[in-house]
Every structure is written in C-alpha cells, then in structure tokens.
Specification:
Rossmann fold; glycosyltransferase activity; 5 domains; 23% helix; transferase; 7-stranded parallel sheet; globular; D-inositol 3-phosphate glycosyltransferase; 7-stranded mixed β-barrel; Glyco_trans_1; alpha/beta; glycosyltransferase
Length: 755
C-alpha cells in the first residue's frame, strides 16, 4: 500500500513535523511511504527522516539553490485555495496551488493524509483524481487535526469544517477533541476518530534525575504560557536558588519572555535555549519537566520527557495532558493559569527525590502505550476499515470466497508473469514483471557490507563516518563511530584525528572495535583530560582509514552531554582547586571539554585550558548597581584583590573595583560590585573585558563561565541593561544616563558594555 503525507515543511522543527516523521518512518517498514513537503528551506531535514521514506519538496525557498523558486512569477500571487486567515497563508502562493494540484492529479497513492488545515482544504478539493483517471477511484483522503476544534480562527475553522465532509476520515490526537468535532459537525458521513501521536523510544540514556534542572520545550507562542512558568519559577528560585529552568523553542514570544526574566531578576535562573533538533538529549539532563499551556492538542513533549524517565508537572488544560498523565501516579496535574499551583507542583518534586524517582519510573511505563508500532497499527486498522466500507458488496463476497478456498491451492500458484495488488477501493491492479515494487537488497561482499576488508583488488568504498558521543560523570568523552560508515577498516583499523580549528595542532587517537568478534560493532575510544592535553579552542574530529590514509570529517549522531552537569556539580561541591588535570610538567591547569554538533552537522569539541580561572556563578543586577559573583581556581585570593576592567580601545580608561570574599572555609568565593564606570569614548558602545586580580601583585585572571554543557554562553546567558553613574552623566551630549550591560563573549568570557 502506498501512503502519502502532505506536510507544510519537512525541513523545519515542530510537533507536527516530528510526529509525522515518526509515523511515516514506522509505516515505511510495511508500506511504500512518501512525504510531500510544500516547502524546502534547508539542504536536509533538521529532524531525522527514515531512509525508507521518500521526501518530495514542491517549492524550493533556499536562496542559494539552483532550483530556488523565489523568482517564479506565481510566487507573487496568493493561493486561491488556502483560507486567507490561515496563520501561514502568506507562505501559500499560486505556485504552491499549481504544484500541489499537479501532484494530487497524478498521484498513484492509495492513501493521502493532510496534516494542517490549509492542506486538508486543498486535499478535499483536489484529491479526487488518480493516475488511472476515471477508471480508478480516488485514494482514501484523511485529514489530521494537530490543534483542536476551538483553536482556529473562524475563517480557517469554517473552511476546514466544510472540507471534512469531503474526506473519508478525520483524525484528531485526543479523544475529547474528536468528541468535540462529532458534536459540532452532526450528520457527516466522514469517519471522525482519534489516534494519538507516536513517541519513539529515544536512543539517549534516560535521566538520572540528579541535576537541579527543570526543562520545558515548545513553540514560544502565547498559548504555551511560558510567562506563567517564569512567574512560577520566580517562587521556586526564592526557595531553591540552586535550581535552574531551561526553555527550549523559538517563536514570537521570545522578546516578551526575555523582558519577564529581566523584570523578575531571573537571569541566573531561567534560560531561553532556542530550538534544538534532538531534544531527547536535553530531556535526559532534566530532573523535572514543566508544561504550562492553556491548551494542548496532545502533548508530544510530555511523552518525550516520560521516555527519559522525567516526571512532568503539567497544567490540566484541554486536551492532551489529562489524557496522558494520571495525577500522582506518573506525573502531576495542576490547575491552568495558576502560577502558585504550578510553583507548588514543581517544588513538590524538587523537594521529594523519592517521589520524583517513583513518578519517573511510572512515566517510562506509561509512554509505552504510544510506541510507534502501536500507533501505526491503529492507522493501518483505520485504513483497512475505510477500504472495506467503500468496497462493493460483490468484491467483498469474492474476497470471502477466496479466503475460504485459499487453503485448497498453494499460495502464489497463479500467473508467474504478474502479481496482483489491491487498490484503496478494493479493485485490483496487475503489476507486470519488472514494475516498481519492494526494493530487494543487492548482493554484496559480506566483508565489505560489515565494514571489513574489501575484496582483493577492489577499491575501498568511500568513508561516511558518523559517531555518537557521550560524556561520563568524570568529563571523559566517549566516541562511537558506526561500522557502516568506515568500510574497509578491518585489518589496519581506523584513527580518530583531532584538528584544532584555525591552527596546525593535531592529535591522533586509535579507535578499537567495541566487540572484536562482531564486524558490525562500532569503533570506539574515550578521550580523557587526564591523558590528553588539548589547547583552548574548537577541535574538529575526523576519521582516517589506516589502509589508504583516506580522511573524512566526522558527522555527529547523538551527542549526550548529561555527564557534564554531574561533573560541574561535583566541581561546585569540591573544596579543592577545581577540575584540574596534572600535566607532564607537573602543572595543574583548569581543563574543560564540551562535545557538540556544529551547525552543519559535524562533531566538534570545545575545549578550555587555563592555568588559572575565575568562574562566574552569578551576575546580580539591580537599581544603579551590578555585581559579579564567582569562584577562583588555581590561585588564592589575598590583599588587594580587585575586579579589573580592561577597555577595548586606546581612548578609554580602565577601572578597578574592590573584591570581597565569602570567608570561612571557602575563601575561593568572591564578589565585586559596580556602581559606576569610566566615561565612554563617544556615542558608540564602549566595552571592557573583565578580569579578577587575586592579590595586589598578581597577574589578572580572565573571568568567564566555562563549566557546564553550554558551548556558546552569549546565546543563552543574557542580562538586562542598568543605568550606572559615569563622568559623562552631566554632559549635554548625553541627555540620558548611559546603560551598562554584562555579556559573554564568543570565548565564554565576561565583559561589560556601556552605551
């Protein structure tokens, strides 16, 4: 059976994209499956697509592509089909109309599934003709609702309601929403039912629930009520200041949420992380998950958190959370719109480790109901029932007779020159010998297929190395390179090559089979800070085949950084001098490594290597003042300790501010307060890089935030501007008081700007 999904943009990140790719990949194990993406915005999908699924983009929006459609004359004309009030109506043009209509008029799919209102409307109006013309009935037409009945503007709601009546089935993701549709659309012959989204088991290790971290994820839209979550977390931070909240996602509410964080002084507690393609690694870092929505059509993030063994505190909003979570059993439900109730739910799990673990364990059992195979089976059952319902009675009788007589004749005893398959309406289509069918594997040399040595005289196949990566609790980085990506490696093996970007430094580390007896096992090594000294910078990872010296850059698979949080927590609790690694010369530099995937999908290592280091732990900002709090590693604080500002530019003065220590057992902890800055050089922004001078005679030490799992702090650790006194306050050229702001540089070091 051939199944086609119509998707807005398969190259983006979102709940509908993720759930469609999950379902399509599972169905592709038994059927021919394709995804028709209205738009192509990237070279490859940001989320993984099964190799068995065919991806068909209609309109290319990549400006650097040879097939870019931006200049097509039809791109300037709006769609004649899509409701103008559809939130993405501006993306749908006459060119989309033309190409989608052409596709639907010629498709040989047995089933076509539309995944958003614009596509449901289009499918209902243009999905009635197949490749065989009038002699073949149209494919089954199925619409999906990934929101809910009440969450569409009137124009979209009316257009989709009218379209539903021309479909064979309409599928919502919650039972309550299906009931709403049936109640409000009485008399329709269309089958209206609900099938949940599939949630595949993640490859990442589940959370150990040890980190002081709450995670939320979703689009930054008003309906998600992240403003409510931030308000609730202000109460959490007051009682449990060591806990942090990370919000993953992008959307129009980002600026408003940033303002709320600034207003509540939560800049050291709440972080907007931006979009993330592989959220499973981020859920594995969390100890509690939070959902604050005023409505949820389903709740994919709830299932993803449950898979990681992370208990969820969710608002009991329509429709999804209450259908997934059993309150007090595998998560907590709180009233929607109530920040106090949400804060209480979070604190209940934060304060009760045993409850957190019990609910997390139960959550992993609950989520098995949403396994992809189970959800795919529900769709297969729905399709089978729809096909049966529209199959003529005579054909149904013939089928029953055939089934009754099937045992009397050997299977496959018919014409050897043709096979027969059933179409969506129960009619049969002959498929002549040689017609497209299931792809059969091509015989290959067994050694080559398993990554072993090629046949004698044969040219080794190209390297396409891809590696998963996991950080252990000691900060060691385990690299696991898939055998299929390094063919011809048996015998002389492969080497991991680390090259420092913008430099000539290179290290070579042999890779070994995880299992010497299994040719399909990965090639692995663990990079340890105790064994390897890497200069500060960014290191790109390559794989080199020893047999012929071929080298290729290593693509990133799953990058699991959870161990960095454990390692950082141990550093914070330690009474010594921090994450030291004894060097060959007897020195003990501060070293920290963060593996990450680059924007173009390669595996890299961000390394920090310093003789001494001043780690910034907090940056309190208040009325007319700003402060730096931190911990010193590799040196001792003494008389004359000061915060030193070194200006960028020759015409600006530097500054110093006194440093105080916490005293007592931990004299590494320091604080410095700023209430004024030197006069700026001009109207442009003035910047000072910040250092800690441990004693009056010591060399200044760079201030930065290195420890943890964040590669680029400048993107996540943001601070508000504050008006400080300067010598320029009374100048007629500066009628408004200059504003100072802390920020992290591209090297995760601390600076302050004045503008």
């Amino acid at each position: 059976m051939k199944i086609t999904f119509l998707l807005h943009n398969a190259y983006a990140i979102g709940g509908t994209v993720r759930s469609t790719l999950n379902l399509a990949g599972t169905l592709a194990a038994r059927h021919e499956v394709e995804i028709v993406s209205m738009f192509r915005t990237a070279e490859r999908p940001l989320l993984g697509v099964s190799g068995k699924v065919r991806l068909v983009p209609l309109v290319d929006e990549r400006t650097d592509s040879a097939s870019y459609d931006g200049g097509h004359e039809l791109m300037s004309r709006p769609s004649a089909v899509v409701p103008p009030t559809e939130v993405l109506a501006h993306r749908y043009t006459a060119l989309v109309d033309e190409r989608l209509r052409a596709f639907l008029d010629t498709t040989d799919a047995d089933v076509v599934i539309a995944t958003r209102p614009a596509l449901v409307v289009f499918l209902a109006g243009h999905g009635s003709v197949g490749v065989s013309g009038p002699s073949r009935r149209r494919p089954l037409l199925i619409g999906q609702e990934h929101l809910s009945y009440d969450n569409h503007v009137p124009g979209v709601r009316a257009a989709q309601n009218e379209a539903i009546g021309r479909l064979d089935a309409f599928v919502t993701v919650s039972a309550r929403d299906a009931a709403d549709h049936r109640r409000r659309l009485p008399g329709l012959r269309t089958r209206i039912t609900n099938i949940a989204n599939a949630a595949p088991r993640p490859k990442a290790e589940p959370s150990d629930l040890r980190a002081s971290l709450v995670v939320a994820a979703g689009r930054l839209f008003p309906v998600k009520r992240y403003d409510l979550l931030i308000e609730a977390f202000a109460k959490v931070a007051t009682e449990r200041p060591e806990w942090r909240l990370r919000i993953y996602g992008q959307g129009p509410e980002r600026a408003a949420l940033r303002t709320a964080i600034d207003r509540l002084g939560l800049n050291d507690h709440v972080f907007l992380m931006g979009p993330h393609a592989t959220l499973e690694t981020e859920w594995a870092k969390a100890s509690v998950a939070a959902v604050s929505s005023e409505w949820e059509s389903f709740g994919m993030t709830i299932l993803e958190a449950m898979h990681a063994g992370v208990p969820v505190v969710a608002t009991d909003c329509p429709h999804g959370p209450g259908e997934i979570i059993t309150d007090g059993s595998d998560g907590l439900l709180v009233p929607p719109g109530d920040p106090d109730a949400l804060a209480a739910g979070l604190l209940r799990l934060i304060d009760d480790t045993d409850l957190r673990r019990r609910l997390g364990t139960a959550a992993r059992a609950t989520v098995q109901r949403y396994a992809p195979r189970a959800i795919a089976a529900e769709y297969e059952q729905l399709i089978a029932e729809l096909r049966e319902a529209r199959t003529p009675a005579a054909v149904r009788l013939t089928r029953r007779v055939r089934r009754g007589l099937g045992a009397l004749w050997p299977r496959g005893a018919g014409d050897a020159g043709a096979s027969v398959s059933a179409s969506a309406d129960g009619a049969t289509r002959s498929k002549p010998r040689g017609a497209a069918g299931p792809v059969q594997p091509t015989p290959v040399d067994a050694a080559a297929a398993s990554g072993g040595a090629p046949a004698q005289g044969a040219k080794p196949r190209p390297l396409r190395p891809k590696a998963d990566c996991r950080v252990d609790a000691a900060g060691g980085v385990r690299i696991s390179v898939g055998a299929s990506g390094v063919p011809g490696a048996a015998g002389r093996g492969v080497v991991l090559v680390l090259r420092r970007r913008h430099g000539d430094d290179e290290f070579r580390v042999p890779l070994e089979r995880e299992s010497a007896d299994d040719p399909k096992s990965p090639w692995t090594t663990t990079l340890s800070r105790a064994d390897l000294t890497l200069a500060e910078g960014r290191w790109d990872l390559h794989v080199e085949r020893a047999a012929d010296g071929t080298r290729r850059r290593l693509r990133a698979g799953l990058v699991e950084q959870r161990g960095l949080l454990s390692a950082a927590a141990e550093i914070a609790k330690a009474e010594g001098t921090g994450p030291e690694v004894r060097g060959a010369d007897g020195s003990s530099p501060v070293a920290w490594w963060i593996p990450y995937a680059t924007k173009d999908g390669y595996l890299a290592l961000r390394t920090f290597h310093r003789t001494t280091h001043a780690e910034v732990t907090a940056l309190p900002v208040g009325e007319g003042a700003m402060a730096v709090e931190g911990v010193l590693y590799g040196a001792e604080l003494g008389d004359g300790a000061a915060l030193v500002g070194v200006a960028r530019g020759e015409d600006v003065a530097g500054f110093e501010a006194p440093v105080t220590t916490a005293g007592g057992l931990d004299e590494r902890t320091f604080q410095a307060r700023l209430t004024s800055l030197p006069e700026p050089a001009g109207p442009d922004k003035t910047v000072w890089d910040l250092f800690l001078r441990p004693t009056a005679a010591a060399e200044p030490i760079r201030l930065g935030r290195l420890f943890g799992d964040i590669v680029d702090r400048k993107d996540t650790d943001k601070y508000p501007a504050v008006a400080l006194d300067t010598a320029a306050d009374a100048s007629p050229q500066t009628p408004e008081a200059p504003e100072a702001r802390f920020f992290f540089t591209v090297t995760n070091d601390l600076a302050v700007s004045l503008s």
